[in-house]
Design goal:
The complex is a heterodimer. In chain A, about 50% of the residues lie in helices and about 15% in strands. Chain A is α/β, with parallel strands linked by helices. In chain B, strand 3 and strand 4 form a beta hairpin. The longest helix of chain B is centred in the C-terminal third of the chain and has 16 residues. The chains are: A alpha/beta, B alpha/beta.
Chain lengths: ~450, ~180
């Protein structure tokens, strides 16, 4: 069952209003009710609705008055007018004034479902259009989540298992491993797929001074008109914009202490206050957070709230670094090569065997993002139809040898054994064979150097 | 086995409902939900006229109210089967009605046509019992919780839950 829109039913007839609200609840909608236009306007000040079902004839403020007031603020929210038998003229008038549709009471069930679905679809299209525009502006070409290594297949299995639920997900992994792509995949395979996917990066917000704390709060939770100097109009934050979809909180470990408390409240209550607001705003969002550093350490250091951690860490997806899934390097390299070659209209069609060997053995500290950048650079500088080692960035082509940096023989041995084990996905027999030692010696070395599978 | 298994449901039938239809409904509920079903004939004393009716249509709420009076155990469920066309105040008609997460539901045979009556009645019953377990309507056409408004739509509706509703049901029944 997909979580559906939030609907406000406005009708002065108590029986019909409650009956319709119950009916919509059974359809999976979250509903609220108002008995006239004024009460509806008050509710619209504090809550966001995806659809309004409005009776035309009501005391205090009638349906047409409410329609005009709402349209002055929000041209997009679908408003379906409800008319009594024989009042088609007022329905036509309402359509001219911006109503999305009208229904005659009592409703034919199929007609009601169809009208609501059409109104939702229109709303979805408007939002999708807005989201796509926003994402095109914000995002560079995203790298694909590709992989056939055991560790990536485990990641895909976890994505499959968690996507249909509404559980909060915490994605951990080094920079450049594709945490945001995992989050997008969770969203894409979820029942929220047609809703928005909104990403917030706390590292950028904090470390580049892009957003001082109060502005970061305003970006997250929105603000009321006059909440602070410069707040000239009510503004919805990303929490509200993500309503019905997924909110991706990247580098959550960098969130300021005050924001951590606010996020905890949202996770617990699915409601928050806009800056300067005194009415809670309810939201239906799924939160996916990501971190590139161990939050457990941040908790021990007093930089991250343990209660927030436990709320976020409901389902943990660990995206492995590229050096621990070397089987995936050729697949990814080939994918990037084809993409960049086509984009740049260059006929670079292959990677030379020597280049492939270098790509497969390099440690990729910047992970998939670094591999992607290396291939992009190689395609730019390649003179022939194949990428050769000289086309690669210098740190990839000729990585500095540990031996030249004055490290001990033991350190080199430890690093070499660890790299071989990682490359062979901890297959002891294969790693021992490659290292030229027997299995029991390898086990002894693993114990001596305290090596463990990542 | 579904987490609903073991609950008891009383099937309450109006006098004009054939035993074969009741047997089909009872079997379908037992198979789909794992409930233990017992059948009672015609214990509902529906008023012949008055506010319980809109013309020839019976308000479903009235049937649910009478059903409640028959329940003598807190966790017991009840489903009424009536021949009259039923409705709720805001709708022209309904084919079934249930209390979300409650104990009572009703289905009407008035709109199931002359053919496949047993199969269609069973489908209506399975769906309404789903509402008693707090399951809402589902967008997935391959799910028994997909809403229907006509006999053609009813024929196309399956008798099993989709994986989303199944996981929803497990979650709801686990929740305190």
């Amino acid at each position: 069952m997909r979580k559906k829109s939030r609907v406000l039913v406005v009708d002065d007839d108590d029986l019909l209003r409650l009956c319709l609200a119950d009916w919509l609840k059974k359809d999976g909608y979250r509903t609220d009710t108002a008995c006239n236009g004024e009460e509806a306007l008050a509710k619209l000040q504090t809550s966001t609705f995806d659809l309004l079902l409005v009776d035309i004839v009501m005391p205090v403020m009638d349906g047409i008055g409410l329609l005009e007031n709402v349209r002055a603020e929000d041209p997009d929210v679908p408003i379906v007018m409800m008319t009594a038998h024989g009042s088609i003229d007022s329905a036509v008038d309402a359509m001219k004034k911006g109503a999305s549709d009208y229904l005659q009471k009592p409703f034919d069930p199929r007609q009601l479902w169809n009208r609501i679905e059409q109104a939702e679809e229109k709303r979805r299209l408007v939002e999708e259009h807005r989201n796509v525009k926003q994402q095109l502006e914000r995002l560079s070409l995203p790298f694909e989540l590709l992989g056939r290594s055991r560790s990536m297949l485990e990641v895909f299995d976890l994505i499959d298992a968690v996507a249909p639920t509404d559980s909060t997900v915490l994605i951990s992994g080094e920079s450049g491993t594709g945490k945001e792509m995992v989050a997008r995949e969770v969203h894409r395979r979820s029942r929220r797929a047609s809703g928005p996917f909104i990403a917030v990066n706390f590292f950028i917000a904090v470390n580049f001074g892009a957003l001082p704390e109060s502005l970061a709060e305003s970006e997250l939770f929105g603000h009321e008109k006059g909440a602070f100097t410069g707040a000239i109009a009510l503004k919805k934050g990303v929490m509200e914009l993500a309503n019905g979809g997924t909110l991706f909180l990247d580098e959550i470990g960098d969130a300021a202490p005050k924001i951590q408390i606010d996020l905890l409240r949202v996770l617990e209550e699915r409601r928050f206050f806009r800056l300067g607001g005194n009415q809670p705003v309810d939201v239906d969002i799924r939160i996916v957070a990501a971190t590139n550093r161990p939050l457990e350490k941040a908790i021990a250091d007093g930089n991250f709230r343990s209660d927030l951690y436990y709320r976020l860490n409901v389902v943990r997806i660990n995206v492995p670094p590229l050096r621990d899934r070397r089987d995936d390097i050729p697949v990814l390299a080939d994918k990037f090569l084809r993409e960049f070659s086509a984009d740049m209209k260059k006929g670079v069609a292959a990677i030379s065997p020597e280049t492939a060997r270098i790509l497969a053995t390099y440690d990729w500290p910047g992970n998939v993002r670094e591999l992607k950048n290396a291939i992009e650079r190689a395609v730019v500088v390649a003179k022939g139809s194949r990428i050769i080692p000289e086309d690669l960035p210098v740190q990839v082509e000729k990585p500095q040898d540990g031996a030249s940096q004055g490290t001990t023989l033991e350190a080199i041995e430890k690093a070499h054994i660890a790299a071989t084990l990682a490359r062979e996905d901890w297959n002891i027999s294969r790693a021992a064979e490659l290292l030229g030692i027997d299995r029991s010696t390898l086990y002894a070395k693993i114990k001596k150097y305290d090596l463990a599978k990542a | 086995m579904l987490p609903t298994a073991g609950r008891r449901l009383t099937l309450v039938a109006a006098a004009a409902v054939e035993p074969a239809v009741l047997a089909a409904i009872s079997g379908a509920i037992e198979r789909t939900w794992g409930l233990s079903v017992s059948t009672r004939m015609a214990p509902l004393l529906l008023p012949p006229s008055g506010p319980a009716w809109r013309g020839s249509q019976l308000f479903a709420e009235e049937v649910l109210r009478l059903l409640k009076g028959l329940l003598h155990e807190e966790r017991m469920l009840a489903l009424a089967v009536v021949r009259a066309d039923i409705t709720v105040p805001i709708m022209q008609y309904v084919m079934g009605e249930a209390e979300m997460g409650g104990s009572c539901a009703v289905i009407s045979l008035a709109r199931v046509g002359q053919d496949l009556v047993e199969e269609r009645a069973a489908k209506l019953a399975i769906h309404e019992v789903g509402h008693l377990f707090d399951l809402a309507h589902c967008d997935n056409r391959d799910c028994t919780m997909t809403p229907v408004a006509s006999v053609d739509e009813l024929d196309a509706r399956p008798t099993a839950l989709c994986r989303y509703c199944l996981s929803d049901l497990e979650y709801r029944l686990k929740a305190p």
